[in-house]
Each structure stands twice: as C-alpha cells, then as structure tokens.
Amino acid sequence: MPGLGLVRFWPQVIIPAVFAVIFGPWVGGLGAAVGIFINDMLIHGNPVLSLMAGVTSNFAMFWLIGYIARKKVKWKLPVLAFGAISILLVALSYIYLSAETAPIYAGIIIVSYVLLLIFLWLTPKWRSYEVGSTIGLLIGSAIIGAMVPLFSQFFIMPGESALNPLTIAAGFSYLIWTFSTEIPFLLILGPPILEAVHKAYPSFKPRNSKSEPQ
C-alpha cells in the first residue's frame, strides 16, 4: 500500500470514525488503538514505535472524533482556529521544507481548509462531526509527526540497519501527509454513511447527535 515512509495511505480511516460516532469515543479510540497495533506488528513488527506513534495517535484521534461529534459544538470558533493553524502550517512549510516541496504542502493545507468550509456549508447537520474529524485528525497527525522522528533519535527505524535520526522537516512531512490523505475521506464519506446508518438503525443515533446550524 502506498504511503510516506511507515505511514500508509489509509482511506479506511472512515470505518473507525463511524464506529466512534455511533458507539462512542471509547469504543472508537480503543478499537482503533488495538487495530493499529495489530496492523503494525504485521507490517513492521516494532511494538515500541507502534505504542509511541500508532497507538497514541489513533486513540487520540478517534476518541476526539467520537466525543466532539456527539456534542452540539459552536463550530465557528474551531473553524477560525483551524484557519490560523493552517496559516502557521503554510509558514512552517516554507521554513522547514525545500523550495520544491514547500508549495505542494502549502497547497495541500489550503485545499484541506477550503474542503472543510465547503462541507460545513453543505452538511450543516453534521458540523459537529466535521469539526471533530478535523480536530481529531490534526491532533493524531501531530502525534505521528512528533513521535516518529523522536523514535528515530534513539532507535533504529524498521527496515534500516543503523541509527538514522529524522529531521523536523521529516516530522512535518508526516503530519501533512497523514492529515491531507485522510481528511477527504472523513469529510466526504462520513455524513452519508452516518445518515444511512441512523436511518437503518434509529437506535444507534445518540440523543444529542443532531447538530444545529450555528
């Protein structure tokens, strides 16, 4: 499966996200954490790296998605905050990345923010889910971007024969790769899947899951 280093392209991110919304943050977070640990053991077999980066990032991400999606959030402030974070990430792209790659990553960041605005406007009922997905994925991506380089400072990376510490730029690349390749699936596929599940199984719908446009 394609990816950036040890971080794979993962469109199936939508599955634990839906479970987190339907069954609650603890089910989503713990299920994703256990699932990624098993997957990591099959892929690279390093439990320390998995516990530092994969397990922590997945638990935080899907716990936040499940928790925020089940609340009636005031979405405007988080959107403004994410806009400010996007500006910061664009600036960091030009500070830490090469002149060839910085515009690409900056473009990905901007497109991700525009995509969020579009789907907040198109699906007002699911604004809590969309905000939760953005916040959760950003936190999870940041954990990966920090923990993988930290691991490489002290341990040999899977597939390598010698210690090869990763740079800040590499960690930033992991953050942007993870966020940009997963956010479209969360924002585009989440609302229609959840809508279908709630129609088929009304009992799965949390009492406070309906978000009002704000």
Rg on CA atoms, Å: 17 Å
Structural class: mainly alpha
Spans of at least 5 consecutive residues whose pLDDT stays below 50 are 209-214
Number of domains: 1
| Straight-line distance between termini | 40 Å
Shape: globular
Strand order of the largest sheet: 1-2
What portion of residues belong to β-strands? Answer: under 5%
Helical content stands at: over 70%
Strand and helix layout:
Blueprint: E1 3-4, E2 7-8, H1 14-23, H2 25-43, H3 47-69, H4 76-96, H5 102-122, H6 127-154, H7 168-200
Antiparallel strand pairs: 1-2
Structure described in brief:
This protein has 214 residues and is mostly helical. Helices cover 72% and strands 2% of the residues.
Description:
The protein is mainly α. The protein has one domain (11-204). The chain has 7 helices and 2 strands. It has helices at residues 14-23, 25-43, 47-69, 76-96, 102-122, 127-154, 168-200, and strands at 3-4, 7-8. It has a two-stranded antiparallel sheet. Strand 1 and strand 2 form a beta hairpin. The longest helix is centred in the C-terminal third of the chain and has 33 residues, at 168-200. It starts with a strand and ends in a 14-residue tail after the last helix. The model is unreliable at 209-214 (pLDDT under 50).
